[in-house]
Amino acid sequence: SCRGFELEYRIILGTFVKNDTNLLGKILNNLxxxxxxxxxxxxxxxxxxxxxxxxxxxxxxxQGQSPYLLNAGISYVDNDxxxxxxxxxxxxxxxxxxxxxxxxxxxxxxxxxxxVDLQASKSFLKNKLEIRFTARDILAxxxxxxxxxxxxxxxxxTRLNKDKDDIIRTIQNGSTYAFSISYRF
Length: 185
Hints:
By secondary structure, this protein is mainly beta. The chain has 1 helix and 13 strands; from the N terminus they run E-H-E-E-E-E-E-E-E-E-E-E-E-E.
């Protein structure tokens, strides 16, 4: 079962300016802030699993389901000058990567991770020619998978603790950068 909530907003900053004919008003009319936040509480019944020790809980979180997701960004689009740019931040919380078997293997957890992407483009020749630059995952945060080393099955703090948990794999993600030129006939 899953339950939770989601909050989302999108706002054009020009709504706060009375005079949109001056330079500041024009810039703010092209500037948009946006965000999305979700909190999810998931449960999977494992009470009938035969290899589960008595002291182990009867429920666990859903594999691959983060307890929270956060997306936020800012974009600027100026259609009059054929220019746009955006910056986006994504954050996910820790989650079960691989479900274990209490008899032989514990769950493998994946640490939370933040990703930042940027993009900018400029059009020329009445929007026939476009130059675009994209940078993905510019923080290149390491993804860590670990055994949550809990002495007490009732301890619900599953976040990575590098002093106590057994790190089994680290994946060093890289940033990608792209530059493209396109022409529409």
